[in-house]
Specification:
There is one protein chain. The chain has about 725 residues and is α+β, with helices and mostly antiparallel strands. The chain has four domains: about 1-170, Prim-pol fold, CATH 3.30.2250; about 185-300, no CATH class; about 365-565 and about 590-600, Rossmann fold; about 640-725. It has a nine-stranded mixed sheet with strand order 16-15-19-20-14-21-22-23-24, with helices on both faces. Helix 7 packs across helix 10, helix 19 packs parallel to helix 20 (about 500-520) and helix 22 packs across helix 23. The longest helix has 29 residues, at about 630-660. It starts with a helix and ends with a strand. The model is unreliable at about 175-185, about 270-310, about 325-335 and about 580-585 (pLDDT under 50).
Amino acid sequence: MTKELVQAALDIGAVYPVFPTRNKKPAISNKELKLKRGDGGFKIATQDRDKIIEYFSHKNAEDISVPMGPMSGLLCIDLDLYKGDHVVAWWEDNKHWLENTLCHKSKNGGLHYFFEWPDGIRFPSTLAAGVDVKGHGGFVVFPPSGGYEILANKKVQSFPISVLKDAMIAKGGTGNNIVYLDGYNTQTDQELILSIQSAKEIYPALRSLAFRMPSRRQENGHYLSLEEMRTILERIMDTSVAQKAGHPRHEDWVDRREKITGLIESAIIKERGGDIRLSQIEIDAISQGEAFIETQKILASSALPIGPQRETTEQDIEKLVAAKTDFTNNSDNAKTLKKFARTNVGELVTIKLDPIKWVVPQMLPEMATVSLAGMSNVGKTRWIAALVVSLSVGDTRRIGLPKISEKFSSVWIANEERTDDICRRLKAVALQHGDKKGADISIRGKGAGMLRLVAMNKANLLEIDDKNIASLVAEIRDMKAKVCIFDPYVTLSDAANENDAASAAMLTKAFLLITSMTGAAVIHAHHTPKERSKDNDWVRGDASAWRGSGAIYSALDCGFTLSNWMPRNKEQRSAWKKQFIEDRLSRFIVLDTGKIREGEALSPVIMELVPQQMEDGEGDPIGVCKIITETDANNALLNTSIEKLGSSELALEMIVRLGEGTHKNMSDAHRIMKDFIGWPDTTKREGKEKLKRMFGDTYATEKGSVTVHLSDGRGRAANWNIVIVET
């Protein structure tokens, strides 16, 4: 049994991190693992082969569990069908989107539908009564654990946000305010408390308050104890209207109140806090919201004492001036010691100045700070992967950039992606261009922990993290790297939001330290503001494309934007918007110059996001950037429209000629259909892919429906299938 369990865990662990459970509880105690409280459970989930063998050989190991959320990249919709007809009714109403993704059956007869974890969105604990949502902090038992089985071995799909909106409306909300992960960081404590009390939003506000608790301090510098933090948050939760049975959000309230301890433990680990003691009076005051509402008071009392500050006088400055080197000394020695460089016009016109040294001409100067701004999911990470490989092999023309003269190493800090995911992206680019060798690339993924350059100190003040910078400088020097990439900018500081000018200034100083000490250029990926009233290409070369404090853009040597490409012609643009929604034409992106240190801006570079087939056993294709012309991008609208126009006629003919069923032999299908106008040559891959573009989403006619897809196999084991259902 143990051998089979270990092997099954290894198989699942090749795809997702796993850990052992028994009766839906962690199989190995923290004491056995020699871990502190809060560090065990799902947090030990791993893809390391040796660890998996060790964990699943344990005497208590019974089931294979996978954590949901960022660790696995999965979100689970858990349907407890046995809880009543209302759950079955919900299931019947939502089958049309549930049945397109991976599905497991639980041992109690429930259904587990899996979706891609939607970064940046907060989910309630339930979508409806008996329909649970398992996300960050939760876990799910996977087959072949006892009683669990795979019902639909399909590719994991994106979660439809419209379903979340409908659920919010059903619970008494408006459905108009999807809560994003960073949304509550900018709210005051009072606003967060009111959100809980009114049940407008419970979990996001509770989580934000929980993560602020460990930083609250007394004059003695001690932290709140876990028990005290829990007491405060429980009393705030007990003032919510949702605590009354019968309230539409009562179930959500019950679930979230039970998670307070876990939230606090996570917050303590994040902040590395210890224990402090508050009086009962202070706890009572905080629980009523006084200390939260008057945030400045509690912060003032919690900060480490700094004493009164005397106003600086002219005499103070004069003393400092007198202590400095004689500024009138014009010796060569003195000039090299001074921080000021003196010159004059006569000197400048007679000497030869060195030109700017570029890693990539017109884009990336040596020792510069450069930023790439773009909307979420526009393709920033894919473009960075293309740039890193291009630098490594010494060919930047392939991505529309000026020619470089040598191969360059890079260091990539990927705070929101795993190292193996970045490696897959890089390999996909290399396979795309047939690359065989190049300069080294150093990657630090989120598995190593968030690398912050600006952190909160014990006095609850922001400061540069010199240890992290030292570690980074050492790696860049060892690599002899010319480029250091940070993705994304927002993860580099502990500041509450990107509008914090002090945080932006500190990050600028951190970048300067890195560039001056290594000679490398810094590139950071940054998000754009959420301008939903504008077209999705409004950011093109716009200085306002950089979200947050204006100090971020001001500090850049060069800045570039990456946005969805749209035609400029008014009529084409209108048609494109319609097609954009129907056929996902967001696959076209464009790189524009927003700020340049010197010289002329780069011409816009238009790219298409295309799938790159990986090698056997390496999973699904990976998206890569392919340079195209503006003419080709414009023609995509026409080509897509032509394909759509021909779909109906072709679908009807396929239903008649091929008949109902699953047709796995494309050669036979081609033999039967080849004389029909509009049928592509499916003996070739391009023909199969064209057919999938037309019928990848089920195409319905009055005679039946046609669907074209790849089977669940990988590499050569995958087969093209035509599925026809007659009405």
